[in-house]
From TrEMBL, chains A, B:
Lineage, top ranks: Bacteria, Bacillati, Actinomycetota, Actinomycetes, Propionibacteriales
Pathway: Cofactor biosynthesis; molybdopterin biosynthesis
Originating species: Microlunatus endophyticus
Catalytic activity, reaction form: adenylyl-molybdopterin + molybdate = Mo-molybdopterin + AMP + H(+)
Pfam families to which the protein is assigned, alphabetical: MoCF_biosynth, MoeA_C, MoeA_N
NCBIfam families named among the record's database cross-references: Glp_gephyrin, molyb_syn
Keyword line: Magnesium, Metal-binding, Molybdenum, Molybdenum cofactor biosynthesis, Transferase
One cellular component (GO) term of this entry: cytosol
Protein name: Molybdopterin molybdenumtransferase
């Protein structure tokens, strides 16, 4: 009975599935902290652009194309008139002038979208509308303005070169031509082009689905009455949801989660099914109630670190659940959360969406007054950048440095980037800034 | 029977309602054409911003506020800790140093969102989390880093000024303060601010509802097979719908309307109910099939004119239906339609949405090569603006001037504005450009 003689499965050494690990994080810098650039590059190295998705062209505005688009037709598809007027043979009107008009019999009419009734015989004219197909035999269109608009016969007062006011087949696009390429971001003009060559669906990177979660027993939903002196309104999840939405994401904001490990685990597990990226704020510092830091390692591979930046020092990242869904865990102070969004989340969203440049393009502005900075950290100061009298950009601070100042944040239109080596920017010195443009 | 003796109503002079008229249009310029600026100003003078609308804050991102927002609370609401650490009285640790730490008994703990168990007695410390309310009697927070993190007693190695690491009530926002003003555009940071002061709904200008209609017997929907040699795909309604969407509008694209006056009237009448603005392309020129121009005057007050621009010369505008809904009727060539959108529709959309600046901000670039222009018309050339070696902007033409060239339009990233007085821009000369940014 060889069946029973076989070695039983449970006697075999059971191979434990290797737990999923994050790639080796970058080594910390001199101060024991990771640099902003290292941390961002690390996050970007851990994620891939979302898989291509077929989308109706009107829903693809602003998305990134994942295929080269080849035109199956030429544009124009046929020789056609660029004016309302009369189709003729140029040689039949080569003597026409205001002093001595040429008169031709009008033998028919070609509206746009309909065929010419017949080909054009020499010495005749055919009325033709803009966009209408040039009748066979004609090579030129005389616009109304150069005629008497005659119905039976037309008097033409201008000689024209052959081909005048005619759009040639393929003049814009040739059949078989690549008109858009994988990686192109679809502006409205590209949508017009796609429609013009008859394409109604394209493969694009979808909008990233972002789930935003706030944690904290102290938080209350806006619109409700604060129950108790210690409660505050939740601003982070609204601000981050709004920022992600303005950056092109599809956003799901999840109501407040109390500082309860089991509840937090359950909420995150429930949300994984619809998330390409999860954002949390709060609970990543050294406090005893920092449950995000405490719970997340149970859900997947995580990396909690300190980044050499101000604000936004404590940062968490993970790839969690069965699909290794990325999660970015930011500090809970509103300004820290906003700066973390700009420094890390926006680039990650851009990579997910297949956008080529992950970073905002910095501008160089002149400091309106001295700005002190913290050495060994990249400082993100809330700034106001305005145009000076000569068109140059002038940067000033929007408010103090406190990481809880929502008012100052709302009043800023830029983040000023003061590098690790900078202790002081004097008035008149140049300073790098990110203009917060996409965002209103 | 005085009842019968009364003068019958029909004998009274019936007052015909005065037909609605457009304001007097501006006088044409020297060439018999209206200037671009005059036409735009005329359109803007005929419309008003949309009425305010209550919106949930997350749906208000990017919209314009219609009310001043006053904070009903202070932020912070109470003195609270900006660090995880220990609440103390500064005077109790004024001699603390690394060489000679001060030891204090830990008499309790304040998590965020909960009240302190009791007030702080002199000579004691209370553990406190970031954001937690400072217990009565305390004036300073010693961060973990300046302690041994003791549980029974804590050794403190640094003297601190009173108020250190404490966020004072109202430091960010005072109760009764105006935090945002009517006319402000709501960025994500403003959404965070609104949430932070407990506001969940605001009055904003809604997204304009734009109905886009294409007319023309020759048009076919993308995705379908062209039936007949003379048919072409409809690109305009897709391009304009995409452009309006990218500009923040809520867009309804209406399938192709054939060149049938009754059908067109019916479609437009049916759409009025959901339109803040109607856009059509085609049928505004001098052709015999220009049904838009033929039909629209029956639906309301209209103004068909020629504008001193290239492309985009024939332009129509109207206020139609019972509500005097604005309609902008553009020429049917794709590039003409796109330029008309930028020159007229975008400013109108911005005014409807309550945005302050109606125009794109032009940039000044250096022409990479000579560009000839048509005198007496404002020419909008499709351009490519790129940054040169020294950060200066360099402008080149994207393609030829043909108004049907979709390929060239999709390849452009700017419109170069060559004024009425310009016949030629030499290489190295400065040229004004609109960067087509919002649009991908």
């Amino acid at each position: 009975m060889p069946l029973f003689g076989r070695k039983r499965v449970k006697d075999q050494p059971v191979e434990e599935p290797e737990p999923f690990r994050l790639p080796e994080p970058p080594a910390p810098g001199p101060g024991g902290m990771r640099s902003v650039v290292d941390h961002r590059d690390y996050l970007l190295s851990c994620i891939e652009p979302l898989p291509p998705f077929g989308q109706q062209i009107l829903d693809a505005v602003g998305l990134t194309l994942c295929e080269d688009v080849v035109s199956a037709i030429s544009l124009p598809r046929f020789d056609n008139s660029s004016m309302d007027g009369y189709a003729v043979r140029a040689q039949d009107i080569h003597l026409a002038s205001v002093a001595s008009p040429t008169s031709l019999p009008v033998v028919g009419e070609v509206p746009a979208g309909a065929p010419a009734p017949h080909s054009l015989s020499p010495g005749t004219a055919m009325k033709i509308m803009t966009g209408a197909m040039l009748p066979e035999g004609a090579d030129t269109v005389v616009p109304y303005e150069a005629t008497d608009r005659g119905e039976q016969d037309v008097r033409i007062v201008e000689a024209l070169d052959p081909g005048s006011n005619v759009r040639r087949v393929g003049e814009d696009i040739n059949e078989g031509e690549v008109v858009l390429r994988a990686g192109d971001r679809l502006a409205s003009r590209s949508i017009g082009l796609l429609a013009g060559i008859g394409i109604d669906k394209v493969m694009v990177r979808p909008r990233p689905r972002v789930v935003v979660i706030s944690t904290g027993d102290e938080l209350t939903e806006p619109g409700f009455v604060l129950q108790g002196d210690q409660k505050i309104y939740d601003s982070n999840s609204y601000m981050l949801a709004a920022a992600a939405k303005a950056a092109g994401a599809q956003v799901f904001r999840v109501g407040l989660v109390p500082d309860d490990p089991e509840r937090l685990k359950q909420v995150i597990n429930d949300q994984l099914v619809r998330a390409d990226l999860i954002l949390t704020t709060g609970g990543v510092s050294q406090g005893d109630y920092d449950i995000v830091k405490q719970v997340l390692p149970e859900l997947g591979a995580t990396d909690f670190t300190t980044v050499a930046m101000q604000p936004g020092k404590p940062q968490g990242f993970g790839l969690i659940g069965d699909d290794q869904t990325p999660i970015i865990m930011m500090p809970g102070n509103p300004v820290s959360a906003f700066v973390s969004f700009e420094a890390f989340v926006r680039p990650v969203l851009r990579k997910l969406a297949g956008v080529d440049s992950y970073l905002r393009r910095p501008v160089i502005a002149t400091a309106a007054r001295g700005i002190s900075s913290i050495p060994d950290k990249l400082q993100f100061a809330r700034g106001v950048v305005a145009e000076g009298d000569n068109g140059e950009l002038i940067a000033d601070l929007a408010s103090g440095h406190g990481s809880h100042l929502l008012g100052g944040l709302a009043g800023a239109n830029a983040l000023l980037l003061l590098g690790e080596d900078t202790e002081f920017v004097a008035a008149g010195d140049q300073v790098e800034a990110w203009l917060l443009l996409e965002d209103g």
